[in-house]
């Protein structure tokens, strides 16, 4: 394995494509006047399927360009790299969306949450406290949850894929 493949171009290409594809449903929903505040299960499943597909394809591409060899660590690195690039694109899009395209996004989320809290039977004191916490920690919880979920799912998917596709020189003897 003296001529080992550089993973940067694979990570960048697959991560950029996944990132752009990931923001398209939100852009389309917003452009068509749909309720972009509601997370529908179809979008969530599609996002997961796309993430799995791009991680698997990226790791497979790395392995094929590396003369059929792949260590577990290399597979995890490629998969997490793809997710990291995609996540950065999603966060940049969300920053642009919430600050320039739809600057009232935070207030709309809070209004929507208040309706749900009222429907759930929360008291006015509980709603007031929840509203304050949402206002204070909105950005942290929004971007923090994206980072944590992306990296966690990316690691799990990458680790499983790398374990399945792993093939080292020692395995050939």
Give an overview in words.
By secondary structure, this protein is mainly alpha-helical. The protein has helices at 8-31, 41-65, 72-101, 105-119, 124-165. The protein has one domain (8-172). The protein has 5 helices and no strands. Helix 1 (8-31) packs antiparallel against helix 2 (41-65) and helix 1 (8-31) runs parallel beside helix 3 (72-101). The chain is elongated and about 70 Å long. The model has no long low-confidence stretch (mean pLDDT 91).
Keywords:
0% strand, mainly alpha, 5 helices, 79% helix, 173 residues
Mean pLDDT: 91
The oligomeric state of the chains shown is: single chain
End-to-end separation: 14 Å
Q: What portion of residues belong to β-strands? A: under 5%
> How many strands appear in the DSSP assignment?
0
Low-confidence stretches: none
| Contiguous helical run count | 5
Question: Roughly what percent helix?
Answer: over 70%
Structural class: mainly alpha
Count up the domains.
1
Please trace the helix and strand order, writing H or E for each element: HHHHH
């Amino acid at each position: 394995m003296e001529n080992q493949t550089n993973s940067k171009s694979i990570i960048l290409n697959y991560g950029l494509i996944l990132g752009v594809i990931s923001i398209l449903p939100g852009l389309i929903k917003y452009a068509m006047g749909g309720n972009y505040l509601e997370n529908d299960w179809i979008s969530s499943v599609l996002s997961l399927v796309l993430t799995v597909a791009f991680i698997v394809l990226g790791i497979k591409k790395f392995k094929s360009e590396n003369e059929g060899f792949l260590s577990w660590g290399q597979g995890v690195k490629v998969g997490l790299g793809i997710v990291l690039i995609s996540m950065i694109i999603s966060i940049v899009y969300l920053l642009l969306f919430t600050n320039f395209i739809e600057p009232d996004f935070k207030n709309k989320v809070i209004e929507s949450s208040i309706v749900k809290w009222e429907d759930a039977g929360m008291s006015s004191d509980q709603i007031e406290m929840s509203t304050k916490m949402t206002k204070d920690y909105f950005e942290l919880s929004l971007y923090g949850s994206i980072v944590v979920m992306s990296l966690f799912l990316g690691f799990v998917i990458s680790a499983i894929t790398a374990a399945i596709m792993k093939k080292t020189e020692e395995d050939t003897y």
